[in-house]
Each structure stands twice: as C-alpha cells, then as structure tokens.
Design goal:
Elements: E1 27-32, E2 37-42, E3 55-59, E4 61-63, E5 67-71, E6 77-85, E7 90-96, E8 105-109, E9 112-121, E10 124-130, H1 134-141, H2 156-161, E11 169-172, H3 184-192, E12 196-202, E13 225-229, H4 231-242, E14 247-250, H5 252-261, E15 266-270, E16 285-289, H6 296-305, H7 307-319, E17 330-333
Parallel strand pairs: 1-17, 3-12, 3-14, 4-11, 14-16
Antiparallel strand pairs: 1-2, 5-6, 6-7, 7-10, 8-9, 9-10, 12-13, 13-15, 16-17
Helix pairs in contact: 6-7
Enzyme class: transferase
GO molecular function: S-adenosylmethionine:tRNA ribosyltransferase-isomerase activity
Function: Transfers and isomerizes the ribose moiety from AdoMet to the 7-aminomethyl group of 7-deazaguanine (preQ1-tRNA) to give epoxyqueuosine (oQ-tRNA).
C-alpha cells in the first residue's frame, strides 16, 4: 500500500489551536460501517449512539510536563524533551545542544538534575532523573509538550485541557486525545444510560508525532510504548462480549492496547502497528479524533473503518468545518 493513498489537504484554519470548553461541546461525526452512513451531532449526545451494557474503555495515563530547560556545568543552556517512559526515573529523551555526552549532568533545579546515561542515536539519549521525587520535580519545572503542529508554547489552559478528567498514572508525553472530550458531566450521563467503563494504561510516547518517512505503509514502524491491561478490564470485556454488547475503544491507544492484550491481562511493551488488512479481535466500535494525513494513526483508523469510507468522511468534515487534530472534534465509528 502506498502512503500517498492516505493523503488529504487540510486548510490550516481547521487545525484546532485551543480546546473547546466545556469539553463535551465538540462536534461528533458518527460513521456506520454497515450502511456507510455519516451523521453529524455533538459529543454530548454520544450516549444516544450506544446501548445499555456497552463498554467504553479509556486510557488513564497522565501527561507529564516533559519539556525541561536546564544548564550544563559550563553554563550552556540545554533543552531536554522526555519522549519515552521507561521507569519513573529513567526515560529516553531528545536533547538539544552541543557536546552532549554520557555522564553529563544537566542542572534543571535544586531538586532535579538530568543525567545522560547513554547515547542512542542522533539527538536521542537515555537519561536518569536525579531527584527525591522525579514526578513532583517534573510538575514543578517542566512544560507540557503540546503537539508541534499547534505552533505555540504551553499556556495555562493546557495544564487543564491537555489532560483527561480521569488521568491517573503518570507516564505520557502526549494526551490520549479522544478522551479529552469526556467531561465529568458526560461521564455521569453515560452511567445514567447504563453504559459501563473500564481502563487501560498506555503511556503515549513522543513517537506518536513521528512522521512516516517510507513510501510503503507496510515498511513503517511505530515506537514501543508501555501498556498495562488489568484483569478487571479483561473480565468486563469478556462479560460484555458474552452479553452480545460492544467493546468501544476510546482512542487509538486503547485500540492498540486491547488488540495487544487479546483476552488476557497484559503488562509490557507494545509495538503493534495496525494498518489496513489487520483483523480486529477485541474492538467492536471506536472513538477517535481527526488525524494528520499520511500518519500511522490515520492508517489505524482506515484499518477499522475502511480507507475509502474514512477519507470520504474526512472530506465531509472539512466541508462541514470540523476542527482537526488533538484539540479537535471527535468521530465515532460503529
């Protein structure tokens, strides 16, 4: 398959630079794979398209302020972007600056030093956060690494809205964006409609923004990411399937986590790369945002919904002035 077959033109003004408030006021496009129909609605009305007993599965990973500014012992300024969770203390990182060598200690604050452990490739390194409480120190000194296509720095609104309302386990450097539409009020409404919920953890790496640099879809690779699918979630998935109800994945991260785990609890790393031709085992329906052209996220959505149908929906979204990307509107594929 050619990567160019997953291209489309997006007018710059349709890239959502800021979040909608309240969260559930985003638009919702509803795609039905059986009759190939497209409906337009608001995210607040999501429960109307689900059935009592359906199971929504969310990613409860929490975005960390992973962009750090520090100094070398010589006084030279250095920017460190934590890109991939390994442990609370150890990360892969992109480091800007000259003479970055193993053993270098970058001073960020009196309670946080970044030590370079190993050079991986070009500007990528393995680092250790030297701190009594690394996550607390990150929260104090770091900036939220909002997506590069927003073309702006972090603002106070991002600390609230580039985070899900149920974020719990620290480790992501990018938000699971399909979940950003869920307000406390909408979650309560879903309960009233008898819709169940469960959680997985997938720590989103900066690789989610990695451009596809090959011409053939099959030749691309995604970066490994930490995943945990607990036994409670697997139990709910099995019960949902047994009752003939649907497992609804909220976001591409949840799709990859559930399809990695199958029907058994799982903790480890996933490099599952889903593109058209993939046969889905667990996921019955799928909520997602509108993704960049020629991206691995768009390949995954096309694998689930069908390339022609999805690209037709994207053209309709452009015509209807939907908002695109991380802070954009949502799509439900049934």
């Amino acid at each position: 398959m050619r990567v160019e077959d997953f291209d489309y033109h997006l007018p710059e003004e349709l890239i959502a630079k800021y979040p909608i408030t309240p969260r559930h006021n985003a638009k919702l496009m509803v795609l039905n794979r059986k009759d190939q129909s497209i409906r337009h609605d608001m995210f607040w009305n999501l429960p109307l398209y689900l059935e009592e007993g359906d199971l929504l599965v969310f990613n409860n990973s929490k975005v960390l302020p992973a962009r750090l500014y520090g100094k070398k012992p010589t006084g030279g300024k250095v920017e460190v972007l934590l890109t991939d969770f390994i442990t609370r203390e150890e990360w892969y990182a992109l480091i800007g600056g000259k003479n970055i060598k193993e053993g270098l200690q970058i001073y960020v604050g009196e309670d946080l030093i970044v030590e370079v452990l190993e050079h991986i490739e070009s500007g990528k390194f393995k680092v250790k956060l030297l701190s009594e409480d690394p996550l607390k120190a990150l929260d104090k000194h770091g900036k939220i690494p909002i997506p590069p296509y927003l073309r702006r720095g972090e603002e106070p609104i991002d600390r609230v809205y580039y985070q899900t309302v149920f974020a719990q386990i620290e480790g992501s450097v990018a938000a699971p964006t399909a979940s950003l539409h869920f307000s406390e009020e909408l979650l309560k409404r879903l309960v009233e409609y008898g819709i169940k919920k469960a959680f997985i953890t997938l720590h989103v790496s900066y690789g989610t923004f990695k451009p596809v640099k090959v011409d053939e879809v099959e030749l691309h690779r995604v970066d490994p990411e930490y995943v945990m699918v607990p036994k409670e979630t697997i139990k709910l998935i099995k019960e949902t399937k047994e009752k003939g109800k649907r497992v609804v994945a909220v976001g591409t991260t949840v799709v990859r986590a559930l399809e990695t785990a199958g029907f058994e609890p799982f903790e480890g790393w996933t490099e599952l790369y889903i593109y058209p031709g993939y046969s889905f085992k667990v996921v019955d329906a799928f909520i997602t945002n509108f993704h960049l052209p020629r991206s691995s996220l768009l390949f995954l959505v096309c694998a689930f919904g069908g390339r022609e149908f999805i690209l037709r929906a994207y053209q309709e979204a452009i015509k209807e002035r939907y908002r695109f990307y991380s802070y954009g509107d949502g799509m439900l594929i049934l």
